[in-house]
Amino acid sequence: MDTTTVRSVGVEEELLLVDPATGHPRAVAGAVLRSPGDNDPLVAELQREQLETGTRPCLTMDELSDEVRRWRREASERARQADVEVAALATSPLPVDPSVSPMARYRRICEEYGLTAQEQLTCGCHVHVGVESDEEGVAVLDRVRPWLAPLIALSGNSPFWQGRDTGYTSYRSQVWSRWPSSGPVELFGSAKRYHAAVQAMVDSGTLLDRGMVYFDARLSANYPTVEIRVADVCLDADDTVLIAALIRALVETAAREWLQGEPPDPMSVPLLRLASWRAGRSGLDGQLLHPVGHTPVPAEQVLRTLVEHCAAALISAGDLALVQERVHAVLRRGNGAAAQHEALRGGGGLAGVVATAVARTAA
């Protein structure tokens, strides 16, 4: 692997703050986090029952793995000082009435969007991959669209909501879809058209600002990256690294296709939405829409097609063996949702599910 040519990759993970005895989320982010001026890699999120970690940009998956684990441990240690634990759960298994963070922007979001914002206690995994320009970034966004739904299935880690089994692998993706700007988008074709579309959304008055452009994949407003936002936060750090490796390879594959003049798949937004819904509903246990043929096939076949699609980029980055091994491992043991169901069957109720997640988060 030549690290002078490989793309940088970084990960943001949102984590729940939970009571160690009951498993219920607790609104103590302010006690866990330092003041905003401290340049803290742990930051507040919309609700006080959660926080977000962020890695530095990394060139190898070993580096990224160390970073993800480092900040999970740091979050765990600080949470314990506030008498809580952190859990990498994309939704709370136990009932919760979320409490919005005190920052003015978050207060305004809750006022503007009502119950959609007030109930929005979900934890995602956002992956940033470096791009050379906005033009390259938009070319990537256009070409990764059909390949994002399988990542929802792979990362699914939110089967419970308000104390109930939802029947979904990723119910977080359903809750997140309530935002007016969320989900898959049309082909843009150029950076100019992308920025014009974003500006029109802001000018409509429906969004407060560009930060509320919640596309499944977008140009970052703060970094020279594309940001892929579809994944649930993963229960295990190994799965976070797997998602990041696949996303970096998808970005590199899309950029190569653009340079070679290959047009993007014109898959319609309604069909993309169906693919995402299907992935969130059945995860790895049923069928998914094939990213190329757009017909239902077993999830294992879709994941193997995903790896094959970006194999050349995985080889260039030195990640092919890691990705093959970890995809096989997830298919064998299941994703985070499967682990939560297994914990529930083991006794202890939904509090036991949370306790299992706490133990695995910082492992």
From TrEMBL:
Record protein name field: Putative glutamate--cysteine ligase 2
Biological process according to GO: modified amino acid biosynthetic process
InterPro entries tied to this protein: GCL_type2/YbdK_subfam, GCS2, Gln_synth/guanido_kin_cat_dom, YbdK
Reactions mediated catalytically: L-cysteine + L-glutamate + ATP = gamma-L-glutamyl-L-cysteine + ADP + phosphate + H(+)
GO MF term set: ATP binding; glutamate-cysteine ligase activity
Top enzyme category: ligase
Superkingdom classification of source: Bacteria
Similarity section: Belongs to the glutamate--cysteine ligase type 2 family. YbdK subfamily.
Cited Gene3D superfamilies: 3.30.590.20
Keywords from the named record: ATP-binding, Ligase, Nucleotide-binding
Listed EC numbers: 6.3.2.2
Function per UniProt: ATP-dependent carboxylate-amine ligase which exhibits weak glutamate--cysteine ligase activity.
Pfam family, one: GCS2
